[in-house]
Design a protein that fits this description.
By secondary structure, this protein is of the alpha+beta class. It is 21% helix and 23% strand. The protein has four helices and nine strands. It has helices at 7-10, 36-48, 70-74, 173-190, and strands at 19-22, 52-56, 83-84, 88-92, 103-105, 115-116, 128-136, 142-151, 160-164. A seven-stranded mixed β-sheet has the order 1-2-9-8-7-4-5, with helices on both faces. A two-stranded antiparallel ribbon has the order 3-6. Strand 1, helix 2 (36-48) and strand 2 form a beta-alpha-beta unit. The longest helix is centred in the last third of the chain and has 18 residues, at 173-190. The chain starts with 6 loop residues before the first helix and ends with a helix.
Length: 192
């Protein structure tokens, strides 16, 4: 079962293995009327207990304002300075299912800004980093990941961060459905 609740309803409950979803429509790291430090403390406790922090971006630079991502870094989320602007290819990891074929992203939709990517280099101390959707330029150069899963380790214990870039919101409907179903299945396995 999946329930979506605002921070004000969950901050203060016993930390456990949860899927914490941050799906902002802007670049702003917003915690509503709950102080950011209180939310960050709760998220860190949940990550230590084995939770998954899922960041679903609908903006180019999710959780990066204010303070250039400093608040998001406190809970283990980092983004590369690399971005995909147009005419890139996306290759999906077999973890997402064999039916999910590669895809060329042309970003012809002016409402979708260039996508900010995640990179293994942003997580040098992580216990594990898995690219779920590699992005390559038109010339074949690796740019970063439109979706990735990170087992943070260290101060975050068994916690994991899963990132999905705004570029994947433009997947064709059938592929988007397959991607999301497979991603949800992976995340459910992580919090068992």
């Amino acid at each position: 079962n999946m329930y979506f609740r605002p921070w004000s309803d969950i901050v203060g409950i016993q930390p456990n293995k949860y899927v914490l979803v941050m799906a902002q429509k802007t670049d702003l790291y917003s915690t509503g009327d709950v102080p950011t430090q209180r939310v960050n403390s709760f998220v860190k406790d949940c990550l230590r207990a084995g939770s998954v922090l899922l960041v679903m971006a609908d903006a180019r630079n999710p959780l990066q304002r204010p303070k250039r991502g400093e608040l998001a870094r406190e809970i283990g989320f980092r983004l590369s300075s690399e971005s995909a602007s147009k005419d890139c290819s996306v290759d999906f990891d077999p973890l997402l299912g064999k039916r999910l074929e590669g895809w060329r992203w042309t970003n012809l939709n002016s409402r979708t800004p260039a996508a900010r990517l995640m990179s293994r280099d942003d997580y040098p101390d992580a216990e594990a980093y898995v690219s779920l959707a590699k992005v390559n330029s038109a010339s074949g150069d690796y740019l970063g990941d439109a979706a990735a899963m990170v087992k943070l380790g260290r101060e975050f214990g068994a916690g994991k961060v899963v990132y999905v870039s705004n570029m994947l919101s433009t997947l064709p409907p059938i592929r988007k459905k397959q991607f999301l179903e497979n991603l949800i299945s992976i995340i459910a396995d992580l919090v068992k």
